[in-house]
């Protein structure tokens, strides 16, 4: 075999051994990657049979890095999907087991600190809004409010007078 002008014989031999080792490694591949391994094995046999340049090796390495990264991300996605399905199944089973009253209690119990913060935030703002609306109502309708207060005072006095008469 002739060597290219920019690759020495020792580098050429190490490239051939690496090519042969990669070919053997690929033949030991798992069944999940069998189709991809077989096409890559054929490509490596073709590369080993002809003169291999550094650019070819770099391209092949980059392609394998891409394939491995793609498989890793696909595996992570599958694992996330499986965990999600398991979690949804657990939640569904827990929801079926709970009684109605326990469900109401759990609805009011916050699942995490952020939900507790949200509940407190909502309650504080509802209290503030009711206070502001009541002050606004008293300021704009003070005569009506005065009449209502006088009415309840007179009603209480009349009930007390009636109760005294009844028990005496």
From TrEMBL:
Keywords from the UniProt entry: Membrane, Transmembrane, Transmembrane helix
InterPro entries found in the cross-reference section: TMEM247
Domain of life: Eukaryota
Cellular component terms (Gene Ontology): endoplasmic reticulum
Transmembrane segments: 114-130, 136-154
UniProt cross-references to PANTHER family, sorted A to Z: TRANSMEMBRANE PROTEIN 247
Protein name per Swiss-Prot or TrEMBL: Transmembrane protein 247
Annotated organism of origin: Buteo japonicus
Origin organism lineage: Eukaryota, Metazoa, Chordata, Craniata, Vertebrata
């Amino acid at each position: 075999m002739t060597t290219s002008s920019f690759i020495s014989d020792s580098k050429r031999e190490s490239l051939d051994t690496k090519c042969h080792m990669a070919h053997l490694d690929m033949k030991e591949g798992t069944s999940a990657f069998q189709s991809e391994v077989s096409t890559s094995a054929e490509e490596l046999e073709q590369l080993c049979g002809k003169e291999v340049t550094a650019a070819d090796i770099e391209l092949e390495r980059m392609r394998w890095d891409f394939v491995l990264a793609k498989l890793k991300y696909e595996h992570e996605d599958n694992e996330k999907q499986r965990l999600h399905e398991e979690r949804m199944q657990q939640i569904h089973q827990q929801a079926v087991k709970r009684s109605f009253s326990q469900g109401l209690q759990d609805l009011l119990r916050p699942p995490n600190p952020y939900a507790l913060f949200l509940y407190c935030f909502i309650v504080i703002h509802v209290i503030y809004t009711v206070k502001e609306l009541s002050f606004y109502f008293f300021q704009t309708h003070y005569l009506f409010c005065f009449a209502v207060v006088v009415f309840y005072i007179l009603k209480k006095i009349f009930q007390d007078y009636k109760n005294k008469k009844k028990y005496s």
